[in-house]
Amino acid sequence: MMMLKNFVDLDEIEKVLVFGWRNHLKIAPLMRTQTITLKEHLQFMESLKQDSTKQYFLALQDDEILGVLCFIDIQHGISCEFGIYQNPDLKGYGAALMEAMLKYAQETLGVVKIYACALNTNQKAISLYQRFGFQFTNKDAQMSYFVFSAGGGAIKATLLHFFSTQTTILATQDYSLLAYKIHKASKNVESQSLRAIPSPFLSLCA
Ligand SMILES: CC(C)(COP(=O)(O)OP(=O)(O)OC[C@H]1O[C@@H](n2cnc3c(N)ncnc32)[C@H](O)[C@@H]1OP(=O)(O)O)[C@@H](O)C(=O)NCCC(=O)NCCS
């Protein structure tokens, strides 16, 4: 079971550990601000005590620290942006960190929109975000921008109900979030029904 430990509660050893990760070669080049000094790091951690728009956490599982999750620009009940990095000694925990991030954002912060960005070259982060239903919104010379809309779950449940009753699929606005489920379920859907699917689905169902 994943536990989140707030940065404002870290001991001195944990603070220095995070400083080492933040400047690690596997992490720093992928951050907006690349290297930071220990003084800046400690000042930043201290500033979190007074800042209700930012929350940073260590993600722990079975006594192992899996990585860091952060939420910035928090507007409770409305939106936030998130960031993530994995303990550089580990591999393959991106999905577990994303699950913990979505749970906290939705259940504790109560947000309905979650924003994210990644360097255009950071293919691992971009495909991880998209696997979790984040939609690409924009791109500039350096960064790609994404948004997750929390309403998708309700639409998904409705559609799966239609599949299970073999009823014609209804159009929905949330194409990307549903694509995988539709692909899996499409084996049971008659071709007549497939024609009712909006065009972004058709290529994924083929
Ligand atoms: C983004 C991150 C959490 C993703 O974690 P993850 O999906 O579990 O993937 P890992 O980094 O553990 O990589 C595991 C393997 O997945 C494979 N992989 C997964 N998705 C891939 C993709 N889209 N393209 C290429 N390889 C991919 C690779 O083979 C990789 O092995 P390698 O590093 O030896 O090449 C993690 O890479 C990370 O912390 N990166 C640094 C910080 C960062 O980029 N944060 C996001 C932007 S702020």
UniProtKB/TrEMBL annotation:
<dbReference type="InterPro" id="IPR000182">
    <property type="entry name" value="GNAT_dom"/>
</dbReference>
<dbReference type="GO" id="GO:0016747">
    <property type="term" value="F:acyltransferase activity, transferring groups other than amino-acyl groups"/>
</dbReference>
<dbReference type="InterPro" id="IPR020036">
    <property type="entry name" value="PseH"/>
</dbReference>
<protein>
    <submittedName>
        <fullName>UDP-4-amino-4, 6-dideoxy-N-acetyl-beta-L-altrosamine N-acetyltransferase</fullName>
    </submittedName>
</protein>
<keyword id="KW-0808">Transferase</keyword>
<dbReference type="Pfam" id="PF00583">
    <property type="entry name" value="Acetyltransf_1"/>
</dbReference>
<feature type="domain" description="N-acetyltransferase">
    <location>
        <begin position="5"/>
        <end position="151"/>
    </location>
</feature>
<dbReference type="InterPro" id="IPR016181">
    <property type="entry name" value="Acyl_CoA_acyltransferase"/>
</dbReference>
